[in-house]
Design goal:
By secondary structure, the chain is of the alpha+beta class. The protein is built from ten helices and five strands, in the order αββαααβαααααββα.
């Protein structure tokens, strides 16, 4: 659309320009406030080409030979990651107010996993601070005792702010006790930062794949990216993407 600008002097032109500029700035602030800070901008599909292949260091659920692989990068302090997993009830309610049809999509993904159609791959992209990093390390320590997924769910079920002490080392250790882990083994793992490098490497690989916020997912068919998940997308949208990949 072309705009014809009158170059003739006009006493109203400068004040009007200021008013218009003010409206544009206010509008930008308003609309940016509607976008949660942990939800990345939609990149419209298979934009990333450097996604690391699934390896032994990944946390997976399901059939390794499934037709479709669902890779998701998350941060344990990210409220939207908790919401898509079915936790963080206040945020879920808020998302439903924006879209009455919104529902967490991870539980539905698990149904595909149980049917052997999808391999689910969880990867850390701990970017919200030290407690995010330590929580990611703690979950891996729990994984040494085959309790990664239980600890994963426990963390999301106990989100309460960011870097306010909820995921302090003391609390992370108490979570392990509540889940009946061998606390001596767990504490030694966490105190020694056994998985610090693994968590850092996961974030670096995610960044190389184009991750800029969480949650960020990739849907693969035969090892190739066919679609992406950009933020807390509605269940109906994610389900359609998976069904399309399975065809």
């Amino acid at each position: 659309m072309e705009i014809d600008i009158d170059t003739k002097p006009n006493k109203l032109s400068v004040p009007m320009a200021i008013i218009v500029a003010g409206i544009l700035i206010a509008g930008a602030i308003y609309f940016s406030s509607l976008t949660p800070k942990n939800i990345p901008v939609n990149d419209n599909g298979a934009g990333a080409t450097t996604l690391a292949p699934v390896g032994k260091e990944d946390k997976t659920l399901g059939n390794p030979k499934a037709k479709v692989t669902f890779v998701i990068y998350e941060d344990f302090q990210c409220p939207f990651c908790g919401a898509i997993a079915g936790f963080n009830a206040p945020l879920i309610q808020s998302l439903k107010q924006r879209d009455s049809n919104w529902a967490p999509f991870i539980p539905e993904v698990m149904n595909y996993v149980k049917n052997g159609e999808v391999l689910f791959v969880y990867r850390d992209w701990a970017f919200l601070g030290l407690e995010s990093i330590r929580a990611a390390e703690a979950a891996r320590c729990a994984g040494d005792q085959d309790k990664f997924w239980e600890y994963h769910d426990y963390l999301y079920a106990h989100q309460n702010g960011e870097n306010e002490g909820n995921f302090s080392d003391i609390n992370l250790k108490s979570f392990a006790k509540n889940l009946n882990l061998n606390t001596d083994t767990f504490n030694e793992c966490l105190n020694g930062s056994k998985y610090a490098q693994a968590v850092a490497d996961s974030r670096e690989k995610g960044t190389n794949a184009g991750v800029s916020g969480t949650p960020k997912g990739f849907i693969l068919r035969d090892g190739k990216i066919v679609s992406t998940i950009d933020g807390a997308e509605p269940l109906s949208v994610v389900k359609q993407k998976i069904d399309t990949a399975l065809k």
